[in-house]
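A.,

Following up on our hallway conversation. Structure tokens first:
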């Protein structure tokens, strides 16, 4: 495996020259948008050599989408950049007859393939599981879909919001009178990515023991259903169905005080706590009349209003000081702009700055897990389209003359840095 270029190290984060957990693992990344790219980025964070296969000219679909119609570095997407670090980009036409043997050669040397096309697309391209397994019996081949590889919905478009709706997640947040409320982040995609990673790593461990690869299938729908397992367990095993309260209690199965409360200068989260301690913190003895688990559930809207009236009388920091002194489960509610200034977030160094060849210095979330012997790291910024095309093809034995021909015909493209 080619070494990562040291010139792409983060501006203020020195590289540790040490073994990473997935050093030597080669990943062919046929994914786009969020679910697949986040999964392969996690593998790259742990040292895998991730080759992102992109369409010449346009690349990953997420390169053409962004938030607020804003771009960085001219035309770099706010949606693409967060999910594609620690990868090299090979821009190659998968439909060209000239590239078949090249892709087959990459497959023969790969450890892992991840793809998130609709079911059947990789087979039509000639790179389905059976073909790849024949070329490389040790291959771990992960297909990630929206609804599953087969079944009545297999040909439907699968997307985060659609899955949140079908899986019922949108009926678990907000107030009953609000109607369905979607989670304000790509929950389905990110859970799907985590399932890809744990499935792939389990298959990799199995291959170490047996020498045999296997197919891994992940879909957004089951990823979200698994995430909601305690809720479905409750509903399906004889208990009542969840009903959202009007107070916006943070989970429809919980009673007071579980929720988010206004303060004099912001908001405060209050989780499950012994009611007498909550009453003590609020310094309102009359609230002890609600000290019964059934009452705290049945009258949670009324109780929420009582608490909110009191929390509005002090600032968030004042309440934190009072409540944390009683060991209550509480925390401030931060606006997104304020999150990186939170003392614990800063202590964890959860964000860091990296250098991108077009966008310049960009702030990203750091690798979120710590491994004492094989730490993850960010050694490459998100690539330009085909930035590493020549480099990758040379590594896999394609002659310079053949690469020049492929570049000239546009079957392969390369975007230069600088």
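Then the amino acids I'd put at each of the 418 positions:
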């Amino acid at each position: 495996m080619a070494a990562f270029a040291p010139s792409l190290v983060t501006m203020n984060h020195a590289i540790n020259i040490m073994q990473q957990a997935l050093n030597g693992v080669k990943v062919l990344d046929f994914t786009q948008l969020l679910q697949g790219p986040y999964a392969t980025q996690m593998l790259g964070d742990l040292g895998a050599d991730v080759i992102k296969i992109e369409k010449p000219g346009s690349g990953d679909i997420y390169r053409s989408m962004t938030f607020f119609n804003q771009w960085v570095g001219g035309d770099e997407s706010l949606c693409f950049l967060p999910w594609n670090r620690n990868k090299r980009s090979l821009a190659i036409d998968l439909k060209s007859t000239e590239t078949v043997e090249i892709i087959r050669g990459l497959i023969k040397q790969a450890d892992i393939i991840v793809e998130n096309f609709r079911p059947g697309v990789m087979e039509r391209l000639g790179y389905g599981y059976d073909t790849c397994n024949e070329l490389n019996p040790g291959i771990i081949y992960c297909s990630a879909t929206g609804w599953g590889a087969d079944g009545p919905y297999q040909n439907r478009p699968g997307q985060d919001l659609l899955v949140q709706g079908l899986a019922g997640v949108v009926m678990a947040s907000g107030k009953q009178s609000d109607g369905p409320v979607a989670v304000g982040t790509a929950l389905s995609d990110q859970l799907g990515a985590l399932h890809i990673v744990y499935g792939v790593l389990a298959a990799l461990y199995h291959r170490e023991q047996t020498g045999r690869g296997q197919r891994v299938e992940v879909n957004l729908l089951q990823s979200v259903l698994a995430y909601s397992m305690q809720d479905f367990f409750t509903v399906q095993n004889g208990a009542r169905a969840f009903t959202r309260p009007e107070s916006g209690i943070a989970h429809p199965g919980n009673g007071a005080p579980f929720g988010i409360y206004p303060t004099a200068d912001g908001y405060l989260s209050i989780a499950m706590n012994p009611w007498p301690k909550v009453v003590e913190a609020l310094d309102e003895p009359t609230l002890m009349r609600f000290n019964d688990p059934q009452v705290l559930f049945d009258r949670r809207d009324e109780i929420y209003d009582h608490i909110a009236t009191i929390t509005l009388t002090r600032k968030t920091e004042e309440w934190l000081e009072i409540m944390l002194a009683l060991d209550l489960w509480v925390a401030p509610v931060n606006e997104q702009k304020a999150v990186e200034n939170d003392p614990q977030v800063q202590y964890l160094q959860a964000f860091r700055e990296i250098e991108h060849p077009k966008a310049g210095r960009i702030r990203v979330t750091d690798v979120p897990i710590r491994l004492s012997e094989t730490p993850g790291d960010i050694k490459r910024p998100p690539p330009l389209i085909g930035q590493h095309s020549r480099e990758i093809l040379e590594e896999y034995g394609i002659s310079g003359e053949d690469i020049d021909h492929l570049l000239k015909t546009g079957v392969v493209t390369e975007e230069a840095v600088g």
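The first strand starts at residue 26 and ends at 30. Curious whether your intuition agrees with the design.

B.
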